[in-house]
Amino acid sequence: MTVAILALGSNLGDREAHLRAAIRTLSGSGALRAVSGVYETPPWGDPDQPEYLNAAAIVADPSATPRYWLDLAQELEHQAGRVRDPQRRFGPRTLDVDVIAVRGDSGEPVVADEPDLVLPHPRAHLRAFVLRPWIDIEPYAALPGHGWVTDLLRADPVAGDLAALRPRPDLDLETEA
Length: 177
Fold this sequence. Notes:
By secondary structure, the protein is α+β, with helices and mostly antiparallel strands. The model has no long low-confidence stretch (mean pLDDT 93). The strands form three sheets. Strands 1, 2, 3, 4, 5 and 10 form a six-stranded antiparallel sheet that branches. The protein has a two-stranded antiparallel ribbon with strand order 6-7. Strands 8-9 form a two-stranded antiparallel sheet. A hairpin with a 2-residue loop joins β6 (112-114) and β7 (117-119). The chain has five helices and ten strands; from the N terminus they run βαβββαβββαββααβ. The protein has helices at 15-28, 66-79, 128-137, 149-154, 158-162; strands at residues 2-10, 32-35, 39-41, 52-61, 96-103, 112-114, 117-119, 142-143, 147-148, 166-167. It has a single domain (2-167), classed as Alpha-Beta Plaits (2-Layer Sandwich), CATH 3.30.70.560.
C-alpha cells in the first residue's frame, strides 16, 4: 500500500466546485483518507492572477504506485479543464494537484527523481499553502529531507507567508454544497 499527500489548488472559474469535484472523485474511488480545511491564499510565483483556494488530502490504495498518484493528479486536473500555459509556469489554473510525498507499506518515504515525478515535491518545503493544510490532517507530518512540517511552518520563508493564508471554515470539501 502507498499513502500519498496531495496538495490541491484552484483560482479560475468556480474554485470551490473544482476542489469539491476532485475530492468527490478521490472519495468515490475509495482512496480518500482525510481532507484538510480550505485556505484562501495569494498566488505564488506569478502575482498577476486571482487568489487561490487550497487544501490537502491524504489518499491510500493497496496497489497504488507513486506513478499512479501522479496519473490520478493529472486526471483530476484534466477533468477540471486545466490548460497548461508554457509561458506561465506558475500561472492561473482551474485545478492544480501536486503529489507532495508518498509513503510505502511500512511508512518509509518514497524518493523519486524522474523528469516528471520528483518525490518528495521539490518546492513543498517553501510553500505555506501546501504545508498549512497538510498539518490540519497530519499534525505530526514530516517532509522527507526537510523535517517536521511544524518546524518548516515556523521558519523563513514559509513563516512570512503564513499571515497571508486565510482559513475558510465556511467551505467544507467533504460535504455537498
